[in-house]
Structures are given as C-alpha cells and as structure tokens.
User: What shape does this take?
Amino acid sequence: MAPKLKTLTRELSKRGPHRVLRGNLALAGQPGVVYTPETGFNLPAVAFAHGWMVGSHKYEQTLQHLASWGIVAAAPDSERGPVPSHLGLAADLRATLDICVGVRLGPGQISVQPDRVAFAGHGMGAGAAVLAAAQRGDVGAVAALFPAPTAPKAENYASKITAPGLILAGQDDVDSLTSNARPLSVEWGGPVVARTVNDGQDAGLIEGRRLLGALGLGGSERKTQSATRCLLTGFLLFHLTGDKKYQDFADPDVEIPHTAPLLPVEPHSDARASQLLRK
Assistant: This one.
C-alpha cells in the first residue's frame, strides 16, 4: 500500500478541519437532525438512515465526522419502532435530502449543491438508502453500511441504481441471514466498491450502550466505527467533490487497511457436482 494512502486513511479516521453545527430538521417538517460545517456554499450532502430500533442519536459522532470533513450530514428520525416501514424510511430519506438542498442551513451561510448529494444508511437503513436511490436517479453516490434485509428486498432494486455504490459488511456477518451485502453487490447497476471490515460486526457502528450490548451482544466497536468512517468519508469526498486525492477509496482493487474485498460467491452448478461424483 502506498504511503500516501496510509496517510489518508489515518487522516480520515480522525475528525476533519471544520467546526460543526447541529440543526433540527423538525423545523422544516421532518423529524431528525442535520450536522453541517460552520460555513460553506454549494457543499456536498448525504442523507443517512438509521438501523432497526435506534435513532439518529446513535450515529451522532459519525454524522459529526462527515460534517467535519465538509459534508452536510442529515438523518431522519422516523420508523424507529419494532415493525418499521422500510419504504416509509426511504421516503423520509428523500424528503431529508430535499430539505438539505432547498433550505438555507445554519445562519444563512451554508448551502448544498443539488448535484452533489448522496444516500447512506446502516443495517435496515442501508436498504432504505438503496430503495431511496432507486426512486431518485440524480444522486452522486450511495453507501450501504452493513446492510440488512428489507421488505421489499433492496437487492431487487439495486439494478436500477447507476450511481457509484459503497457496500461494507462485517467479516463474520457477511454470509449470515442478517446480511444481504453479497446480493446487493452482485445486483448493483453502477460501479460498486464492496468490502468487508476485518473483525467488524454489523452492530458495531451504533454508538453508545444498547440493551443487547450490555448482554455482550451487538455492542459498540470503536475499530468498526473508525474504519467505516474513514471508508465512507473518502468515498463521498471523491464522488461528491471530484477531489482525486481520494480516488483510491472508490477503487475496489486498492488494498485498504483493516478491510478485504467482498468477493461474490460463484453460483453452484448441479451439473458440475454430478460430474465430480461420477469420477
């Protein structure tokens, strides 16, 4: 790995140079939060969807991290119950992005460039981000972080997305029933970077304590959070700003610390299996 990439991964794992402001999306009619750099016009923006049974406050540091690197990061706070509507969360994700684009943020010194926007999400929120992107074709990037199955299936809509995609999965979770990272990467309609995070778990991105975390299940993981924030930030900075400095984060063949390529599973061939049995 080139020293330049080592330096970038180390930098992007930490907070960026911008001071961060926090806003309330409810003032514009959508429950949720928005984090922005202190100032800046024509900024990139990402609408971020939460996982199952958690809210935007469980991703506060991740959202602040993105804002510190110059990206407006907004998250709706709907569909937090035990039986959420994934299509409803996708709709609120699109509404959140519309607010970022159409409303002057902060003290009037912050605006978003309409063609520099993205969707992202974690767990079921990753599926919601895919559903939202499939219905809105003008996004510059989509990130599915540790995606979980949704209804309808997000992989059935992934082929409609031509925007570049980032798909991350936990090393030990990728082939479990709670992950659909592989089918998403196979069905994606545009260029896609699919990686596993070494020793990462899907619930590790959630910040703070959870009931299951107290029982030793699905607790917060700083290594997972650090690696994910680095990969997500670099990916968005390249695709939303065009800064070639971050090009390696959009290249599926580049070796990045603490990750490995998510390789598709070759389809099983019954005919081949029968030939082997006859030998």
